[in-house]
Amino acid sequence: MSTRLSKGGRLIDRTKPLPFSFNGRGLQGYQGDTLASALLGAGQVLVGRSFKYHRPRGVMASGAEEPNGLVGLGQGGRFEPNQRLTTTELFAGAETASQNHWPSLEFDVGAINNRLARFFPGGFYYKTFMYPRAAWKHLFEPVIRRSAGLGRVPEARDEDRYEYAYAFADTVVVGGGIAGLAAALAAAEKGERVWLIEQTPHWGGRAVVDGVQIAGDEAEIWVKNTLQTLGKMKNVTLRSRTMAAGLYDHGYLLAYERVADHTPGDGRPRHRLWRLRAGRVIAATGAIERPLSFAGNDVPGVMLASAVRDYVVNWAVSPGDRTVIVTNNDDAYRTALALLDAGLSVPAVIDARPVAGGALPAAVRARGVRVLEGKGIAKVSGSKRVTGVSVCEHAGEGTELEAIACEAVAMSGGWSPVVHLWSHCGGKLLWDEARAMFRPDPDRAPTGADGAPMVRAAGAANGWLEAHEVMDCAHRAGGGKGSCPGAVAEEEAPMLPVWIMPQGAGPALRAKMFLDPQNDVKVSDVQLAAREGYESVEHTKRYTTLGMATDQGKISNINGLAVLSDALHQPIPATGTTTFRPPYTPISFGAIAGEARGAIFQPLRRTPMHDWHETHGAHWEPVGQWRRPYCFLRHGEGVHDAVHREIRSVRNAVGLLDASTLGKLLVKGPDAGRFLDMLYTNMMSTLPVGKCRYGLMCTENGFLSDDGVVARLSEDTWLCHTTTGGAERIHGWMEDWLQCEWWDWKVYTANVTEEYAQVAVAGPNARKLLEKLGGIDVSKEAFPFMEWREGTLAGIRARIYRISFSGELSYEIAVPASEGLALWNRLLEAGAELGVVPYGTEAMHIMRAEKGFIMIGDETDGTVIPQDLNLHWAISKKKTDYLGKRAQERSFMASPERWRLVGLETLDGSVLPDGAYAVAEGSNANGQRNMQGRVTSSYHSPTLGKGIAMGLVRHGPERMGEVLDFPTDNGKVVRARIVDPVFYDKDGEKQDV
Amino acid sequence: MSEPASALDGRSRKGFVDLAEAGLRGMITLRGDLSSPAMKAAVKATLGTALPAPRRIVTAGDRAVAWMSPDELLILVPYAEAGATLATLGTALAGQHHLAADVSDARALFTIRGARAREVLMKLCPVDMEALAEGEIRRTRAAQVAAAFWQSAPDEFTLVSFRSVAAYVMDLLETAARNGSELFPA
């Protein structure tokens, strides 16, 4: 049993007990606990089951590297799976639940996998794909799907909110240990803008636990004083609970601040993602202790030596009465001292080195502890809990020399610098033979825009493990001159690289040596992969799943690649490391989404009449980021009925369409006419002032891109209407040509789309309605079709265009957006006796289809040229050039074989499915039925009482009256006749009255 | 006659700063050769101010001129004066190649007032607020939409966006300014 010690614990506040629960059982911890220390303090050593074999798992580490301690935390809208016990602060009422077991943590049926382990070797998943073929789909996939995965997916909506924040700094120091503090101080004293971030809630890192002395005092005092100094400097920002998740090009650093994880529901954002732009980054990210690979090193109670020390010193947690220490270095002896200081027993220190003669072993020996030199652990006894260890010769094969009873094992295989930030942006590593570690290669740092290194590693992250080296390195990394405060700690004798223990262990022991305890990857799995031909560390990783768990192999990767190197008989640097990718530890999706959820998930563009539409039954249709009314539903009315009612009203009385979203681009200057002649396929320079002309725009590849009505406002000014979705795109298109190609043409453009509210007033009563409003002569004589007038309508400044997209008598009225709603209301009031109704986009679409007018996006899809749509009349023959002209003259664009626009009428009056294809005789080279056309628009026309459609058909206009077959999804064939695409008012009499 | 209505009718909200839609303001987009004497003279004559330096805004009473790009200015005047200002500019720049357009109704204006106004902007705009110069107008984005802002008084910023997204911008500001979400709590 682990337990809480009666005194000590530098981080806990015993006056503030906090209740929490684990699997429904009420427990108690203290303010300052992590979930891990609280559980261990409450005697809970078994915290979960492993991914593959469902082996019992206990907490192994005390920080971000923890592989085992993952729980589901919270309930309902605050439930989140896979929360790491060691990095989650305890709060009152925390509800935790272990994962990956059924029916219970203590008795797990899935643990049968453990007995069957020899049937689940490395690469098991991949092997299931191979043979027999049917087994994957019917046997393995369903079984694996059910048993794989750790936590439960949250079901409720996340109750929390999240946000971004942007900040800028000359230097961002990552890591709040003594290295980070020293580097930040040095940089800050030079006057730089400095950010210092620390992932835990506490400053000082390892030094404050390990008894380091700085500037003649305990490290804790120096840390406190330095923090105070930094806190007073205006150029320094200190941020704890903030983890550097990833570093990207140009010093772009994502930092993940856990603002309120420890105070859920207090109204603050849960997480904040800082998007920092750093001139340079100092990675003072420390080092992670490596486990040792001996049989049973995954049994709950086997922990990293540094973690045992942390639990004792920081949280006053005893891992068990008797802790055996197993090590290949001097540092682990500090754990023995910490345990002894806490009044606990250390039956032995098992040291793989032939001689342990340093100062630290001497200090431990002096306290009466046995130090077994040249020894190793043959195996750990116990399954859900350590009960003892068997000692063997490290040099041998594992014959038990002695059994030692204990409740915990503290292991240390040496240290690996945290090189993630260094590596994210391309920094390279070198293998340090003496210290058996990969550390940053100072000659191959990640570089910034200026080619200079943008990251410096400081302290343990740079491979310096002794306190005085750490301080010196960090001081210099921060740009400090002269000497830094001296740090003193016990000197350490060299370590001995140990990759498996004992070094001559046979297959039975190797199959119980865990490299990756979360994903259950053992020494034997990596060795098997090597035998099967896996030479690349990246391939071996994926094949065995080593380091692919949620901890991304923080404690397992180096041991794994060392075992692989050994199996391949090559030195470790020849094997290399896998790639370090952001984020350093998982960050929440909420933080990535930031504020973008609910109403502000995406910008919604609203016309001045939007709210009126909303309160008058608008059935919305998204058009770009706008919402446009598809139709206006009356009480109890269906969408189909509403659309048809609106069409009948426009055709027989008068309707109002909110056309404010149409793009409106001003083009002005001495060369504006020439410019528009290039942009449009037809002539715009010859358009008289006061008149309107419909125009087409093509890309330089000839394809139809946008259309709309152009009005000439003055001698040198045109107003170009675009489609709703095309406004910004076409404005950009214009500026592109003006700035990059025709930079010497005197033309300015402005996007004035949102300046105006625009209302289409369409229907036989349109003129009467405008006459009632008064102010502008809208008679046929004074205001002919395809002209515009300016004046005051109903007291509002207005420009009216006499244009029609419905085929009816129609005026489009543009007024300042601020008066759009006023105009809309005046039109409704005055139009009441004329039968006015608002109509939506669907009625507009159907009415234009009745008239055979094309719609960008329906009749065009980026592969259609104006000639396909029989729009030759809108293509100038006189012009020597326009954008797309040359492309349209190429042989395949001018080919008579191209599909061209026709009308389609079903023989039975039904509506053709939109997008349906017309089949032809025979089949193509792929054995598919030949096609000869497709439907581009299809509706039921209430005006004509039957289905109407437009489509593109091979030789279409020459085949009037022919009947085509359109097979549909349900196997039926709809037959339709090729007809003129203008179904309604062919001569255009109604719009020109 | 109707009373012109701004996008949000002056909606306001208190968070850890005071937020308000600032109502209608006359705005004119003026494009032309900013280095020409005619342009300088026209701006001086119409607004009484010098041309702003790049990325700067020059304020004179209830009028202001902001530099938007190497060939574009944004002129701010009281809403009712936009038409007259446009006419005066047109006269002053007659014969000069330029474009002047009334965009008063195409925009929405917001004020962010309080000691922590910068913190609200820091959450939405990728701008180095500490490096913001006096009299600087910053064209940027607010979350997902285009925006520009400048410091309009001590502890007050004015932000301008397109009118159609006014409600989105106000919602953003309100979210960013919620009590408890201060970036640098005391």
Structure description:
The complex is a heterodimer of chains A (993) and B (186). Chain A is an alpha+beta fold and 993 residues long. Chain A is built from 26 helices and 52 strands. Chain A has 7 domains: 1-149, 2Fe-2S iron-sulphur cluster binding domain, sarcosine oxidase, alpha subunit, N-terminal domain (Ubiquitin-like (UB roll), Roll); 162-288 and 416-488, FAD/NAD(P)-binding domain; 291-413, 3-Layer(bba) Sandwich (FAD/NAD(P)-binding domain); 500-570, BFD-like [2Fe-2S]-binding domain (Arc Repressor Mutant, subunit A, Orthogonal Bundle), CATH 1.10.10; 610-638 and 755-848, Gyrase A, domain 2 (2-Layer Sandwich), CATH 3.30.1360.120; 663-751, Alpha-Beta Plaits (2-Layer Sandwich); 889-992, Aminomethyltransferase beta-barrel domains (Elongation Factor Tu (Ef-tu), domain 3, Beta Barrel), CATH 2.40.30. In chain A, helix 14 (523-531) crosses helix 16 (557-568) and helix 23 crosses helix 24. The longest helix of chain A has 15 residues, at 133-147. Chain A is elongated, with a radius of gyration of 38 Å. Chain B has 186 residues and is of the alpha+beta class. Chain B contains 4 helices and 11 strands, in the order E-E-E-H-E-E-E-H-E-E-H-E-E-E-H. In chain B, the strands form 2 sheets. Chain B has a 6-stranded antiparallel beta sheet, covered by helices on one side. In chain B, helix 1 runs antiparallel to helix 2 (82-92). The radius of gyration of chain B is 17 Å and the shape is globular. Chains A and B meet through strand 9, strand 16, strand 41 and helix 24 of A and strand 7, helix 3 and helix 4 of B.
In short:
The complex is a heterodimer of chains A (993) and B (186). With 993 residues, chain A is an alpha+beta fold.
Number of helices of chain B: 4
User: Which fold name fills CATH's third level, the topology of the largest domain in chain B?
Assistant: Gyrase A, domain 2
User: Quick one: overall form of chain B?
Assistant: globular
- Total discrete domains of chain B: 2
The oligomeric status of these chains comes to heterodimer
Proportion in β-strands of chain B? 25-35%
Mean pLDDT of chain A: 95
Q: What is the C-alpha radius of gyration of chain A, as a whole number of Å?
A: 38 Å
Name of the CATH architecture of the largest domain in chain A: 3-Layer(bba) Sandwich
According to CATH, the homologous superfamily of the largest domain in chain B is: Probable tRNA modification gtpase trme, domain 1
Content-based structural category of chain A: alpha+beta
Task: List the helices and strands of chain B in order.
Answer: EEEHEEEHEEHEEEH
